[in-house]
Protein 1
Amino acid sequence: MATRSDTPLDQIRATATAEAIPDKLRSADAQQPRPVLWLITAVAIGLSLFQLYTAGIQPLGLFYQRTAHLAFILFLCFLIYPIFGQARPRGLVGWVLDAGFLTAAFLSGFYIIWNLDAIIARAGWWTTTDITMGIICVIAVLEASRRAVGLGMTIIGAIAILYALAGPRGALPGLGEWMPGILAHRGASLDRLIGQLYLGQEGIFGLPLGVAATFVFMFVLFGAFLEKTGAGKFFIDLAFAATGRKPGGPAKAAVIASAGMGSISGSAIANVVTTGAFTIPLMKRLGYKPKQAGGIEAAASTGGQITPPLMGAGAFLISEYTQIPYIEIVMVSIFPAILYLGTVYLFVHIVAMKQGMRGMSPAELPLVRNILKAGWQFILPLLVLVWLLVNNISPMRVGFWAILSVIGVAGLRGAWILLVDGPLTSARVTASLKRGVRMILESLELGARNAVAVSIACAVAGIIVGVVGLTGLGLKFSSMMVALSGGNVVAALGLVLFASLILGLGLPVTASYIVLIVLVGPALHNEFGIPLLIAHLVVFWYSQDSNVTPPVALAAFAGAAVAGAKPMETSFQAWKFAKGLYLIPLFMVFNPEIIYGGPALHVLWTGFTAILGLTAFAAAIEGYLFGRMDPASRLLALPAVAALFWPDFTIEMVGAGVLLVLLAINWLNAREARARPG
């Protein structure tokens, strides 16, 4: 019997991955001296061990945990990302400058740890050393953001600081004269601003970094262990075995596999360039255009960010902001995520049927029983994770035990292989133990590396949130939003969508959500009456659009690079496939039963209309469902879909009736066309 490594799918995987990744996309580590790589490994492993210790053995206080985490993260960032970029060695000047930043990284966190009692005792009466260390920390965070996240977020953080200092009583009174009337404020002194950002609980060490330093890190580390132990390959192979024979099989498998892995990895872009390196060439091989293949992968990977359990750190942040238990947010997010992924899956199916595609041959696909036989143990950690969450265990502690369960099942699998694959010799036992230790160390390093960008993004988001609280910008923004929308909730949601797209030009998804919810969340809930949890979910879903919406579509651009397609063409395809990202939040607002529940018949009707509306919308966009749709049916379907969102049962009934008639006509016409000779 062929092993998993001998299957034709694995041979295709190797060829596809080699073809998908250009030579220029080499690891930046190649430019690093070996001692630096050793130091990166040591710091990354140290950070992961620190996080595991505080998660499962000895929890630390708020400022101890967050400050130590930031010190580790900044130090690791300045080691991984040289000051002049990763394309060339640092050189003497680079090392001198980076030595200063490495020192700043160390002092930024550990200064507070060493002096915490004294700092608390003199709260509000900061010393010159306190302010100096705060300035150093802010500069270090902004520079780390430039290197690891991007220049856009650094600029937005710097603008926020300048805005806080502008005003008649601020450090930059002249700048305050340029502020429009509604945005004007009295201004803050440098001491007051640094006290807010560095020495308070609403700045750099506020809620966003707190979530990143606890819950998010543990789940990112959990994903790293799954990847290194082969769980990622197991789930991808399982998706291909389930859908590979269907029309457009690799694309459908990409939707399932990318969403599954993206929900754990926490990054749509990272998922595109890893999973997509395998799935995109397979889609092209089957007949999808390069731009379609890249767009499908980007839309599917974006779905991972709204799919439980991790939701790209969103579930943890929403839980902290709303004080709703994490497990409740996970549970209510399952059906909306299924709706989104089902919409992408339907688009993929329609494109495959329109172009007459077929699936992969059975000889190219592994058998489900062989996949389960080789990797069934990877299901156990997920069951442990779900069981612990259902029992209301802290998410940070859940991540700790989930990681231990991955190590345990991997160790048991290794022991079983030792027993059945040959004589039990000391050499084989030693080699197996070395592989196990290497796997653990590599997982610890990978998890810390993967957490750098999100933690730094949360630190800069803390700067922005701190400035919003200090200046009262949130209340002003809410007033502007009410005025511009004229009190119309649809117009208000359109403004949120537009704002999320603008913020997406410079902020990653997590930071965009934090900034948006601080600015527009109060208005959505208090002024427009949208329930608190739904307001947060709407903002979080809309914050994903920077992955798939032109002109900034980061995940789509990554998909275009792997597919060898034009970035803008790929982003338009991703935008089309990800339409559920915009429609489903609207459905949540006008049909809150989809989130909060209600009478059984009402909930069933709401779920049915959601599925019907998304199906009809996809069919109208593509002009195909069971067969080709005539222009009149496509045109009539759009207002009928809009009727399903109307908060009036009679109008909903009319819209549903029209759509059912249109889809029935399409099915009858398609059956007649298939029966017609020739």
Protein 2
Amino acid sequence: MKEIYTRFIAETLGVQKWQVENCAELIADGCTVPFISRYRKERTGGLDDIAVAEIKHWADVFADMEKRKATILSTIEEAGKLTAELRRKIEDSVRSDEIEDLYLPFRPKRKTRATEAIAKGLEPLADAIWTGKTARPEQEARKYLGEKVPTVEEALAGARDIIAERLSETASVREGLRSIFRTRRVVSKVTRAAKDNPEAAKYKSYFQFTMPLEKIPSHNLLAMLRAENEGFLKVSIDADPERCGKKMYYEYAQLGGYPPEGAAREVREAVEDAYKRLLEPSITGEILREAKRKADIESVRVFGENLRQLLLAAPVGQKRVMAIDPGYRTGCKVVCLDEQGNLLHFETIYPHPPQARKIQSVMTVSRLAEEYGTEVIAIGNGTAGRDTEEFIRRVGLPEEIRIFSVSEDGASIYSASDIGREEFPDQDVTVRGAVSIGRRLMDPLAELVKIDPKSLGVGQYQHDVDQNLLREKLDDTVESCVNSVGVNLNTASPYLLQYVSGIGPSLAANIISYRREHGRFESREELRKVPRLGDKAFQQCAGFLRIRDGRNPLDNSAVHPEAYHIVDRMAADLGVPTDTLVGNESLCAGIPAEKYVEKEFGLPTVHDILKELAKPGLDPREAAREFRFADDIHDIGDLKVGMELPGIVTNITNFGAFVDIGLHENGLIHVSQMGRKGPVDPSKVLKLHQQVQVTVVSVDPDRNRIGLRLINR
């Protein structure tokens, strides 16, 4: 990667240039983000996976930029207009808008007023006015009169059109206007189409809205731009035309000095036309796209953080689960799963109206719990979820059976997906959905990787942001979560395995096939026998795969096989077998890390090894906790301002957090109701699925809106 790019990345991320260079080198060598951040800390200076992913993102951006530069330089050179200075400016740029500005005068054009004027032979007149070589443009224009240009005014108008287009294609002019537009306010106004359209009502707060562009929250801007796309708003920037005109004339003058008054008058008129007709629409679009890009990045950041918290939600582990997908008219689908999540039994109960077969439903639930040794119950939190939870709590099951409310977001997507059909080809979508609810309680990460993250309901305006940027962030987040937890090589599904560093869908399928044919893996080294899993793939994946009760206890840890010899040395120096060292905190605490530093394995890696040896294979996720909604709240009409209620955070946005308090409608804790002074980042205050206490501050039954305040205890 060129130095101009590594320097830019280092300054943008606030890291050292050598860290970027080494990281980029590892990426180019085929190393993955999780592997680099976990096992190459000496090379990167301890950069975490987020920083490494950012460097990878910029490396991809600049790789594309290099291709674009090559195309542009080739085009200009073929036209015979590439100077050494222009080449230098393009090659040294790290900004795509600057590169496109430099290319703009040479880009093949469609028919414009300026190209028509040039075709009429008026470019020399425009040059004379532009350079100030004529003090009498009217007299100069007479030289160009003829059949195509019958009057002086037409000649001058054509020259002004050429000058206007030239101004609009001048890099310094465009950048000067951008600097002005960035400091102005974004304005939205209601359109005629919105006035009688009920769909526009949700954008009412933006019908007459203005805010400084640099201060507008991402969710506000994205909402406005969505409304504009739907035809309900007109969004603009309130740049001052007079100030912009002066800036344009100043930038023009810097190119060759101020012309005599006669030529200056023509240039000023061309400046006014260029601004209104060409630059104002173009720069407005650019700056709004630039602002949207920033809003996209912020929204994607929020989405990624929410997804991380969702994927790393507390698991109950390998328990025998009864999972229920609630419903009224169609009944509640009940499935029983074993400790590995295999489907043992399913049937439907009807505890709610209109059937209301309560006694029969009670008997069925009691029988199934006893017959299948149920340890925990997972109840979907969608329609009828609250009523079903209350029903189950009244069944009279043994106290040791814990009951959990589980988010249904994405369960229906899984049910109808190819993955769902592949796993349960003989079951209908309702059974698949219930199984998914149960499995996501056992291990949220293992189950949720089967569902498109955009369907999990944890973002804001996810359909409005740059989809490539969103996909990149979500893929990075899923990969980071899977590898931070580690994967059981002998039980993992192919959908989980494919996110392990260095594996992907094809190798995941090969691993599953090998496991079916040869039985469980007894060691990490056995992975080398999997078809198409070569040395590089082994290096990237081995440390993230766990083998319980295998031949080598280190295979159930995050210690990478390439460092096993270090552990063997430690054990030998202590005079104990390696097996004795694994999991022995007291022994590990007395080992001097400095003694085991090698050329390829520095102090950070040795410290990681000792930490892992003390608690091998430790799951970083918390344990699942039970939760219970307030018993006397069933619909929005039961709410009163001032009530204190328990709730679960279901989504976090820049403007606040949504909380499930046991109703069909979630309440909103606005950022102003989080009990903090100054600017508040909700993601720093709350976590997804966090159990909280809230106070009701407003109730609007007509719009089904509930305002909440966070109780900080």
Protein 3
Amino acid sequence: MKGFAALFLAIDQTTRTSVKVAALADYFNAAPDDDKLWTIALFSGRRPKRAVTTTRLRDWAAEVADIPLWLFEDSYSIVGDLAETIALVLPPAHHRSESSLSHWINVLRSISDSNDEVRKTTVLAAWDRLDTTERLVFNKLLTGGFRMGVSQKLMTRALAQATAKPEAELAHRLMGDWSPDTTSFASLIEADDPAADLSRPYPFCLAHGVDDPDSLGPLTDWQAEWKWDGIRAQVIARGGAVHIWSRGEELMTDRFPELARLAVDLPDGTVLDGELVAWDGASPLPFAILQKRITRKTVPKKLLAEAPVILLAYDLLESAGRDLRAAPLHQRRAMLDSLLAAGPQDSPLRPSPLIQSANWDSLRHSRSQARDMKAEGVMIKRLSSPYHVGRKRGDWWKWKLDPLTVDAVMIYAQAGHGRRANLFTDFTFAVWQGNELVPFTKAYSGLTDAEFTKITQWVRRNTLQRFGPVRQVTPHHVFEIAFEGIQESPRHKSGIALRFPRMLRWRQDKTVDQADTLDHLREMLAQYG
């Protein structure tokens, strides 16, 4: 644990990527295998589930620190991080521990199903054996909210330096359905067994955003296609079975039973990259219809009929077991088109159509019609590009539509967390319905630190009521809210929910009576929902 806590501190104290990677590489060279495996798991999102509620932790920490709960809560509002607040208020430990990271993770996992008495005894004993930084790390693991300022890509780079294995190979090894309970560091990283997991996907190739593609050179060097509003997925047909993985490395095979036939429709050793969309037989359905199936582990017949799903494929990553990612896109696409043309016509698989345009202006016109196609914009991919690991600038670009916008009134405010714990950053917005302001969305991003500071000062002077951490404020400020989509929602008083809402700008030039109406939102729902 000491080594991992030192790594945590080293990463937390720098913003330089090279320093973070070097610290990680040193750690991977020195740590025991079990700790290395858990470190890889933590950095790739495989965190242990929360073992204790935050309410209990607050109570226990205040008790051990011998301070009233209100003082702990005030401290928390200043620090902005619960794990750090607890680590700071606790008295010095009476004992020292030389136990490893994996030991402490197993300790907290062992109490996940215990009663409160056992949990409290175990947690207090741990606090009494760890120093401040170790407590901080332990608390973050305990709450299930462990995060560090390093991406999985940087972690993989450091692991490549420490093991002398190619970064791309390691990125592939770390994909798929594994956990420290199902593998070892040697099996995951060192074993020479590429067929160990037939279901394993490839790391996804990601795109950067572009505002104006004219600088990319002649359009003849590029392939254009729709940026579908669905779920990015890889379909893997290996060993007589089919596996479907989301971009977030979630195995979704059981959620889309209509795709099970691809185990037969596709030649063995085939991997496709594409977009899962709800399909009406001729074109995609709105994302809101697909969303009904995203969280369903099993799908009833009624929902299968209402929201049938197909894969719009746009890349071929593996053919007959051969990795094609290094081949140029134009070659992979030609092979994909041939593969799909030879398959059954009733297969739940379609090629994602290419957009034929003579020049950028023509493509710009096509992009303007994206919402009619149930797409978010246009993808632009260099014809000579390989299938990269992750996001690499230069070859793949996403040219998204400008977001939908609405002017709304701020009516509630709540403080943020972390470095913004002293600022009000989380706001609830409303629009007019007659003479009443009806709340319809929340947003917490889009303003500068200076704007958040200014609005925070105003909130403190204009609070009408307090509801725990939430403050009701005088309806006065109008904000332009940007969002990617709109849909019906019976869970909200407005009957409407937005996708990815954020504050585009603070409309200090508008008065409250100039904010939009619920009727306007319903018109947008009818047009874009």
